[in-house]
Amino acid sequence: MTPTQVRAARVGAVAIGRNEGERLVRCLESLLREGLLVVYVDSGSSDGSLAAARSRGVEVVELDLTRPFTAARARNAGFARLVELAPELEFVQFVDGDCELVAGWIARGLAALEAERDVVVVAGQRSERFPAASAYNRLCDMEWNTPVGEAEAVGGDALYRRAALEAVGGFDERLIAGEEPELCFRLRRAGGRVRRLPGAITLHDAAMTRFAQWWTRTKRSGHAAAEAWALHGAAGETQMVKIARSAVFYGVLAPLGSALAALGLALVVAPLWAAAPFALLALVYLRLFAKVRAHRLERGDSAADAALYARFTLLGKFAESTGVFAFLAHRLRGKRARLIEYK
Known about the structure:
The protein is an alpha/beta fold. It has twelve helices and nine strands. The longest helix is centred in the last third of the chain and has 30 residues, at about 240-270. About 45% of the residues are buried.
């Protein structure tokens, strides 16, 4: 067998998407160039994605339209089909359909997994293809820039050990977002290690040009954090719990508490005192802004980028809090949350 055939026998790829257009074409071709067996899972596209995949010899799985689409469900379906096609599979590369795999990543990822048997998933750095196209694209590019080394979680583009993935039951299909950190939590709890490797893994095309897109994406993050808190908070999950708590504090409790305090002071003491709680609230927000800005400067961001990230982190607390309470509202009513679309 040629090196490419050996790799294909050991490693397969699952790409997921919906109406990704040319982004999907770039994604699939980047996977095929690595000599991988590729399964594409489509969530109801109407833009020719299915034909584009099939014309390139890619195996296509069409999700049942009668059930809600989620990334977790799509990834599980693709993984199941991949194992059917290649029973000897040892590793699986998951990638989002709006991403292009960087040449050479598979070799680097495999080397890391083979060097340390307790490492069960590895990822590199995802970067934006057009970071200067909008402030929102730039924010995404900065968000992807995470520390190298031991990690709590990876994103949608990562290389997994098949055995470890099967041992924990794959992705949790109940989640409408945040399925990757939730899976990584279960993998770590089972004794596996998660690693972020130096260098790139994918080029991502967020194509985010409107504030509403950013807001809804951030709302999804809050929803995911609340759901992870409900699922694993008692079991020691800290990353997503911290996100949910922070969103609730800065997005709801702090402003609500200030408003109630101002009302109380106005009624009991004097109207002029009503401004005091809001002055204190402004200091609380300024402290958060300064903390985030300093952190981004330490990471090597420019002063302008650090300030941009800090501003949207502060604003994002309000968006995330709406996601937290959307999850709580559905949970209290005993209903499944709807997928929050942002494209």
